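Supplementary notes for students who missed Thursday's class. We covered one full example, reproduced here. Read the sequence, then the structure, then the short commentary at the end.
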Amino acid sequence: MTLAGDKVRFEFATSTRIVFGPGVFREIASDIRLLGKTAVIVRGKSRERAQALAGLLEMPVVECEIAGEPRIDQIRAVMRDLHNVREPVVIGLGGGGVLDGARAVAGLLTNPGDILDYLEIIGKGKTIAHRAAPLVAIPTTSGTGSEVTRNAVLTSPEHSLKVSLRSPLLLPLIACVDPELTLTVPPALTANTGMDALSHILESFVSHAANPMTDAICREGLMRARSLLPAFKNGNDLAARSDMSLASLMGGMALANSRLGAVHGFAAPLGGTFDAPHGAVCAALLAPVMEVNIRALRGRDPGSPSLERYAVVAQILTNDQSVTAEDGVKWVSDLAHHLGISGISSFGVTDSHFSELCVKAAAASSMKGNPIVLQTEELQEILHRAR
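Structure (token representation):
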């Protein structure tokens, strides 16, 4: 955000159309038919919902599977299968990894070349020049907010990294968010994805790149995220599930138009090096990052607006206007405990990995949005506390 006198300048971009509410999944087929001649459904391992959607579409359908978090080789394999598809509309139906995979596929359908041509860090980093093929994003979890973001996060096992394909031309035309699709998500996945959504909202709100639009979205998102524990305890609580679907959606809108921070700075190398689901990593890191950031701000930049924002976070999460920023850390830490969140040691991370992880995290693009530049010993402390 740039301030010039009393003028505020920022950009805000999201999916062209957002359709939200219980049951909207069953009503979206007619809108999809207007976008193309062939439906390319990118899904996870389960075919049940993809087959249900295919039965509603009344058009040719090609199904593509992306199991787990998307890898570069998976995207290449899908693209080989689609070289003769006529006027495709790409539908991502699944969790955040599936939606990211669908976004990459939609982008490559209109931008020639190999995926590495467009990837940052490990590839050529070419600019996406053409709008992606029509993309409809239908999330079945509440975490990533990928239905309204502009980047596809892909894993490169060869480089032990997660990297992004990024462009506003990759934004979906339709985000179809139906909380009913999340009712069957098991408790552990509800916990990890919900903490991921909370981390998106929180990091975007305290980022130095926050703007008035993301501020308003994050404040509402923080209130909705208080429903994570009820959704975890009772997966059939549609009101709590709806709140978490909104929190995820708002977190996605915020991160796409602000910046993240140290949680996601660490999540990239941790997820690329270990068999560690993104949401689980963010869940383990969130409270330690908050604690270290707040202490660093108090010590080196006590006048930072981000310090006041951490206090606002605490006030919203606890519903108590008298609390301090540190009380927000305790609230998040207690939540993680009640959700049964595991530390990063459960993924095989040991002290011997810390130095390399800190170097990679410090260089990660997400780290640029952290409210204060963290010193090496502070990065190390985060990993120690997240064990």
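Commentary. The chain has a mean pLDDT of 95. The two ends are 35 Å apart (CA to CA). If anything here is unclear, bring it to office hours.
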